């Protein structure tokens, strides 16, 4: 019997592109889908398997696309649905998949569902949102109360985020049906899957309790739907929980999400003991046959070179090496591959209600200048053009690590086995024949690995010794 086919994201690298800041095709200062299509050669050269686009739907942008007013269309700033079709077709030709960002927990207050719901207590859409006669004591994530009084029918509605992001009532069967249709709509257009926003808080009845059991029945329903396509579609959840058992719960019995983001890893710092601990426990708690997913940055947090690497490229390379040699799926946030830093945003250029603009600034291409960009260009590292031309750059290193991973079975699917080492050295084996060791300290360290160095963050070739902040991949002999 032929072995079961591995899903395409096994050992794969996903690239998170923030569409407004990735590439601008028409010079209006806002990145767009045509711009992204124009940069496919770059992503192909880098070696990624899929692209996750932050929300591409029409939105009043109170929360930059996470307040959706129409789930079946494209935001005019980013282009048209034909542009998205063209992007799916063009990426398909070069073997890169497109993931969209599904925002099912809440809509925009301008979505027609909410406009109908708020119009009267008798509206057939009234039960689609969460209404109460009195406000309960609860704060929203962005500050302020989670309940807002609404004049027309004299009740309060619930919103975990902004008042302009009313929460859908996922206890309502019609809401579930409506989203089945939205999933099918995009799957049939060739979308390879979804990153799913705030999945851990999807069902709220009553609000205020996270990870309710009903969430898991919704996830099983979506998984059955995703599995009905060939190839099966990917559900990658924003499982923002800090407990690994809870994270594992979103994989179900391997019948819910195929991947759930690992926030304990993102927040472990660049500390050998903490990282080794999170990875080992993650490998232990996930259901058999499931894959972990690792990321260091995203559009909600401070970019990792600033947050955990003191903006020191030696440390950035170590973090990237770890990210790209762990078992599972790895996600690069656009600019991670350049070591792009967090950008200081002058107060008169602030857009985001939650102070996240500094992680969302324009990509540094170097061969074409951004004209009047919506956020200031910063990043404070050499551009793509400069780094591509420099074999010693962070970008060249990152590309080499991706290529090494893609060409070596141990790094694609080999088991993760921790190796004991000196304090401050994080070391593990992948499969039987490959080891990774990273010195996360300021002192040199001896290593007892016999084999050949396949890749070093410092371009060295010595499996017996690591310089401070050096990481290596070794082919064991
Ligand atoms: C998720 C998104 C974030 C957004 C929030 C509300 O956490 O990643 O950007 O603000 O959900 O939708
Ligand atoms: Ca544009």
Question: Could you explain the architecture of this structure?
Answer:
- This protein is α/β, with parallel strands linked by helices and 477 residues long.
- The chain folds into three domains: 13-106 and 173-411, TIM Barrel (Alpha-Beta Barrel), CATH 3.20.20.80; 112-158, Oligo-1,6-glucosidase, domain 2; 415-476, Immunoglobulin-like.
- 28% of the residues lie in helices and 16% in strands.
- The chain is built from 15 helices and 18 strands.
- It has helices spanning 19-22, 33-37, 40-46, 81-93, 112-119, 173-188, 213-227, 244-249, 263-266, 272-285, 304-307, 313-325, 384-388, 394-406, 409-413, and strands spanning 13-17, 50-53, 97-102, 131-132, 147-150, 155-158, 193-196, 234-237, 259-260, 293-295, 329-333, 416-419, 425-430, 434-439, 445-446, 451-456, 465-466, 471-476.
- The strands form four sheets. The protein has an eight-stranded parallel sheet. A five-stranded antiparallel sheet has the order 12-13-14-18-16.
- Strand 7 (193-196), helix 7 (213-227) and strand 8 form a beta-alpha-beta unit.
- Helix 6 (173-188) packs parallel to helix 7 and helix 12 runs parallel beside helix 14.
- The protein is globular.
